[in-house]
């Protein structure tokens, strides 16, 4: 009958599992060990954040107060474009230089110890720079906070202190770049006024 066939089939299945029990246990132990080793080899990362407010009103070149109304849609576009500026290679490069990240093996693979103790093969400077930029970019998240003029900068680093220092460095370098841009605009305006 059908019940006996199913019963007979189940007995054969359990007998086959019993014969291969040690093999199955060995495979499961090997997989568990492999998963454990992969998880342990992953670096522990800490996340820190910094927030900056975007001044979406572009003041006149000579610092006079402007009473220009900026519609909300344009304000939104300005803030969204500044998110891209904060995450740009230009700002990342400034942070790499200010925080000396190219000298840190966590970010610069060329400085990591090789399998047998020596350092890894050093590539040309351009490749190393690109590798460090990619490593920083991978751990960086820049986003607008809701519908505000705030930008959140989050960074994942090897220590809480390093992550906080780098997140803050992004804010500082963005503000410094904006200040330099405005000074250059002021200088061009003053030169233009002098030539009149």
What is this structure's SSE topology?
Layout: H1 2-19, H2 21-41, E1 46-53, H3 72-86, H4 89-98, H5 125-138, E2 140-144, E3 150-157, H6 160-195
Antiparallel strand pairs: 1-3, 2-3
Helix pairs in contact: 4-5, 4-6
Question: What is the chains' assembly state?
Answer: single chain
- β-strand number: 3
Rg computed from alpha carbons, rounded to a whole number of angstroms: 29 Å
User: Structural class of the secondary elements?
Assistant: mainly alpha
Q: Assess the beta-strand content as a share of residues.
A: 5-15%
SSE pattern: HHEHHHEEH
Low-pLDDT windows of residues: 59-64
Look at the structure and give the mean pLDDT. 83
Biggest sheet descriptor: 3 strands, antiparallel
Helix content: 55-70%
Q: Which sequence of strands runs across the widest sheet?
A: 1-3-2
Distance between the ends = 108 Å
Shape: elongated
Count the helices. How many?
6
Could you explain the architecture of this structure?
- With 196 residues, this protein is mostly helical.
- It has 6 helices and 3 strands, in the order H-H-E-H-H-H-E-E-H.
- It has helices spanning 2-19, 21-41, 72-86, 89-98, 125-138, 160-195; strands at residues 46-53, 140-144, 150-157.
- A 3-stranded antiparallel sheet has the order 1-3-2.
- Strand 2 (140-144) and strand 3 form a beta hairpin.
- Helix 4 crosses helix 5 and helix 4 crosses helix 6.
- The radius of gyration is 29 Å and the shape is elongated.
- The model is unreliable at 59-64 (pLDDT under 50).
């Amino acid at each position: 009958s059908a019940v006996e066939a199913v019963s007979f089939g189940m007995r054969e299945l359990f007998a086959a599992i019993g014969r291969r029990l040690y093999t199955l246990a060995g495979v499961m132990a090997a997989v568990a060990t492999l998963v454990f080793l992969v998880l342990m080899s992953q670096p522990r990362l800490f996340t820190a954040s910094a927030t900056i407010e975007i001044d979406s009103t572009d003041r006149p070149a000579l610092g006079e107060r402007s009473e220009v109304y900026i519609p909300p849609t344009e304000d939104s576009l300005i803030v969204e474009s500044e998110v891209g500026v904060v995450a740009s290679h230009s700002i990342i490069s400034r942070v790499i230089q200010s925080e000396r990240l190219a000298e840190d093996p966590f970010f610069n693979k060329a400085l990591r110890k090789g399998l047998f103790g020596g350092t890894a093969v050093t590539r040309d400077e351009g490749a190393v720079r690109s590798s460090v930029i990619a490593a920083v970019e991978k751990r960086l998240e820049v986003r607008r906070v809701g519908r505000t003029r705030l930008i959140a900068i989050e960074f994942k680093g090897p220590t809480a202190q390093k992550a906080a220092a780098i997140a803050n460095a992004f804010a500082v370098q963005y503000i410094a770049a904006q200040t330099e841009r405005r000074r250059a605009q002021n200088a061009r305006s003053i030169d233009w006024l002098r030539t009149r």
